[in-house]
Amino acid sequence: MTMIYAVDEINRNKYILPNTSLGYMIHDSCFNMHKTLTAALSYLGQKFSEYLKDVCPIHAVIGESGSQHSLTIARFFALFLIPQISYFASCRCLSDKQQFPSFLRTTPSDIFQSIAIARTFLHFGWIYVGTIEINEEYGREGIAQFIAESEDFGLCFAFQEVLPKKEDVNEIKRLGEEIANTKAKVILAFTSVEAFTPIITELLRRNITKKQWIASESWIVSSVISAQDTINMFEGTIGFALTTGYIPGSESLEASNTKLTDVSHLRVSYNTYMAVYAIANALHNLKSCVHVKGILLNITCGNILSFDPWQLLFYLRNVEFINNLGDLVKFDKNGDPSGNSYELINWQLDESGKVQFKVVGDFKSSGPPEKQLHLNNKTIFWNDGTQKETIVFVPKSVCSNPCKPSTRKVRQKGKPFCCFDCIPCGDGTYSNTTDSPNCISCPEMFWSMKQRNGCVRMPIEFLDFSDPLSVILLACTALGLVFTMLIGVMMYLLHEMRMGIGLLLFALTGCFVCVINFVGEPTDATCSIRQTLASTFLVEIRFVTFSMLVCSLICLAFVPAYASTQGKYSTASEIFALLVTAFGIMSCIFVPKCYYAFKLNKRNK
């Protein structure tokens, strides 16, 4: 209906193709490949049949709407360079002029839609998503381009599925179960309405809600999917749609209510309107023999009543005109429209419970990358039916929440790279950043904080002179010194003082005295003295057999005791070991010797 309206409007326009009327032939393919091929072959048959040479020939084709059907017939028309303009086929593959030299379109290539969707995911911070694609070039290339655009900001995929055919019931059930069980809250569906319908039925059966659906332009303004029985599942859906156009007197199109004559928004219809005007302006230039910049001046002008398809194709590729919105319309070297823009649509319920397609942003490829996407966050209704006024409340879609400081991130085996566990840092280690891959060891003399997000200097713990434990140990030390002095006086009076005994008594005295060095705040000097005194004492006693046995027993008991204590108690265990060793030597060597010397002296008297 839009094409008919546009042709009639042009035929009434005295400035475009004056004294020449456009005609048309319409074939309804009913979205059926067989009928599409039949229509294409009938065009070619009329063009080259000797029996139909007197009938007004077909010079250009407007269609098909779908990418897959357009791909098929574009290969036929390319053989004869017959111009073909599609108003809705958006597959990136159709930009390949090596395969499709005669194909043009008034709808943007999916490369720009994929870029727009990827930028939207980046804007909202969605990094864990699922994708569904139709098993055609439209879906495959659209998702592939989306993935390519998303690689730079670390997008992670819960699943990447191809829509099964409606006859494959088992696969449909499997996909439904996967969508129901996935942790991903955001799902991108790059598909047509027809291919999406079987899985929608399965999702309805499972009553799957609370998923944020991202629609491709093929179904974002679909009245079929946004019907009353599916709204609970798809409420809050967002996606990019073709920019709204305006057709003067479009009220006459309201009688035809199809998805291609969407007079309420005039998206696809306006692309059809522009396709007709592009052909009309190209024919006007061909008739007027308009010189095209960069082309040789001696080119043969075409006769409007008899010209070859390639001549019209030449003028179509180079056509330029201002549309009724005041925008410049032309095609780039790939046959795509020079200006590529979309409107971001959000499914919102009105007071009657019906879906309204609200524009909440747009994407314009003509600007610099950082200014191409414009969003109004405050006007978006999400899949739970609520309106959030700040970006903080946007639905989250992550496999694992970020690992907080004090933990390290460990990837879960067999799952995507964004799925991980957060392992707490151990003693003596810390992490002070989010998603830290490792815990860092604290420097020497430092210890990890209780929160494990930093290190603090270890407290200096020592035996103070006022500590009750120090008082007890020092009292034992004083007692040992008194006993040593008494033994020395006794040995002197009994005339038993020899060089060896004197050295042993001196070492024993040093052992008791060095205990004092273990009490008080330690310094480098006192620590060195401790080690020296202890080593010296142990080497003097090593030649005494019985003492060696006692010392060995003490050492066996000291090692586990020292290892199991910390701080001032480890120092106390050292002092205790020294005291026990000293008292043991005193008891094993000097007490018997004193007794023997005293008894011998008494006998001599």
Characteristic terms for this protein:
15 helices, alpha/beta, 40% helix, three-stranded parallel sheet, eight-stranded mixed sheet, 605 residues, single chain
Widest β-sheet, arrangement of strands: 5-4-6-7-8-11-12-13
Count of helices?
A: 15
Percentage of residues assigned to helices: 40-55%
Indicate the overall shape: rod-shaped
Mean pLDDT comes to 84
Task: Outline the structure in words.
By secondary structure, the chain is α/β, with parallel strands linked by helices. It is 40% helix and 14% strand. It has an eight-stranded mixed beta sheet, with helices on both faces. A three-stranded parallel beta sheet has the order 1-2-3. Strand 1, helix 3 (67-79) and strand 2 (84-86) form a beta-alpha-beta unit.
How are the secondary structure elements laid out?
Layout: H1 2-11, H2 33-48, E1 61-62, H3 67-79, E2 84-86, E3 103-105, H4 110-124, E4 128-133, H5 137-150, E5 156-162, H6 169-181, E6 186-190, H7 193-206, E7 212-215, H8 231-234, E8 238-242, H9 268-288, H10 309-317, E9 320-322, E10 328-330, E11 341-349, E12 355-364, E13 373-375, E14 407-411, E15 420-424, E16 429-430, E17 440-441, E18 446-448, E19 455-457, H11 468-493, H12 499-514, H13 524-540, H14 545-563, H15 568-604
Parallel strand pairs: 1-2, 2-3, 4-5, 4-6, 6-7, 7-8
Antiparallel strand pairs: 8-11, 9-10, 11-12, 12-13, 14-15, 16-17, 18-19
Helix pairs in contact: 1-9, 2-3, 4-5, 6-7, 9-10, 11-12, 11-15, 12-13, 14-15
